[in-house]
Design a protein that fits this description.
The chain is of the alpha+beta class. It has two domains: 74 residues, Arc Repressor Mutant, subunit A; 182 residues, 3-Layer(aba) Sandwich (Chorismate lyase), CATH 3.40.1410.10. Helix content is 30%, strand content 36%. The chain is built from nine helices and 13 strands. Strands 4-5-6-9-8-7 form a six-stranded antiparallel beta sheet. Strand 11 and strand 12 form a beta hairpin. The longest helix is centred in the first third of the chain and has 16 residues. The radius of gyration is 22 Å and the shape is globular. The relative contact order is 0.15.
C-alpha cells in the first residue's frame, strides 16, 4: 500500500501514538491476533484523549496493521510489506553492502552533476568548487522500500559509468570496475526523523524514526571517492555486531568479531 493511499492521523499527539503502536506491531512486540488495550486504557497509557487514540487507531487500520471489531476490540494483524528484513553485521558491513546491492533492487530517482556542498567537498578532500555526481536511489526488498541512498562521487571518477549502470549495479562495484583501488572507509551511524520527501520515498509517516548512516570511502592514495548518506527503515533493516571477550593490557574487554559473515535475512 502506497503512502499516498494511507490515512495519516491529524495532530501531533495522534501521530506520536500512531508511530509508537506501529513500531511495536512491526517489531513483533504485539503479536498477530492479539488484542490491543481498550481506548480508555490506551488513552491513560499515552496520556492523551480517547479522540486522539481513535485517530491513531484509524490510521493503523488504514495501514492494515489492525482490525477494529465492534464488541471484541482492536486486533493486531500481520503487517503488509516484505516478509523479511535485511540484517547486517557492523564488523563486516562493507562487503555485506555489496552483497545487499546484488540481492535487492534499486530505483534511481535523481541523477546529475553539480558543485559539491562544503560538507561533501571537505569529506572527500576536494577543492571547494569541485564538481561531483549526485545520485539518489531507493532500494527495495521484495518490492517494498527499505533504504534511501544519496551518493556523491568526484566527476572524474563518475564519468566512467552511466546513469543506466548506476540503476542496475552497486556503486562500489562500479568504482572498482573503473579502476579505483578502494582501501578504507569511515562511517557514522545515528538516527533521524523522516522529512516529507523521505517519508514519501520510504512509504512511512512524516516524522517516523529512521536509521542514518554516513560513509566516506577512500582510495589507496587517501582521496575520497564516495560520500554516502543512507536512511533505513528500522522495521526492514537492522545493524548487528557480534562481540567477543578478549584480554588487553591485563583487562578483560569486549571487542567486535571481525571474521567473515554474510548479510542474512531475518524475520
Amino acid at each position: 500500500m502506497s503512502d499516498a493511499s494511507r490515512k495519516r492521523p491529524e495532530g501531533g499527539k495522534a501521530q506520536r501514538v500512531y508511530l509508537l503502536l506501529r513500531d511495536e506491531i512491526l517489531r513483533g512486540d504485539l503479536a498477530v491476533g492479539s488484542l490491543l488495550p481498550g481506548e480508555h486504557r490506551l488513552a491513560e497509557l499515552h496520556d492523551v484523549s480517547r479522540v486522539t487514540i481513535r485517530r491513531a487507531l484509524d490510521a493503523l487500520e488504514s495501514d492494515g496493521l489492525v482490525a477494529r471489531r465492534a464488541g471484541s476490540g482492536t486486533v493486531v494483524r500481520r503487517a503488509d510489506g516484505p516478509s523479511q528484513a535485511i540484517s547486517a553485521d557492523l564488523a563486516t558491513l562493507m562487503p555485506q553492502l555489496v552483497s545487499m546491492g546484488l540481492s535487492t533492487t534499486a530505483r534511481l530517482v535523481d541523477y546529475g552533476y553539480g558543485s559539491a556542498t562544503p560538507a561533501v567537498a571537505e569529506a572527500l578532500r576536494l577543492a571547494p568548487d569541485a564538481r561531483v555526481q549526485r545520485a539518489v536511489r531507493v532500494r527495495l526488498l521484495e518490492g517494498a522500500p527499505f533504504s534511501h541512498l544519496t551518493t556523491h562521487v568526484p566527476e572524474a571518477i563518475a564519468r566512467s559509468y552511466s546513469e543506466a549502470d548506476l540503476a542496475t549495479t552497486p556503486l562500489l562495484r562500479l568504482l572498482e570496475r573503473s579502476g579505483v583501488a578502494i582501501e578504507r572507509a569511515t562511517q557514522a551511524i545515528s538516527a533521524t526523523l523522516a522529512t516529507p520527501e523521505i517519508a514519501d520515498a520510504l512509504d512511512v509517516a512524516v516524522g517516523a524514526a529512521l536509521v542514518t548512516l554516513v560513509r566516506v570511502v577512500y582510495d589507496r592514495d587517501g582521496h575520497g571517492v564516495e560520500h554516502l548518506t543512507a536512511l533505513y527503515r528500522p522495521d526492514r533493516f537492522r545493524l548487528e555486531m557480534t562481540l567477543e571477550r578478549i584480554e588487553r593490557d591485563g583487562a578483560r574487554l569486549w571487542a567486535p568479531t571481525t571474521g567473515p559473515r554474510v548479510a542474512e535475512a531475518a524475520q
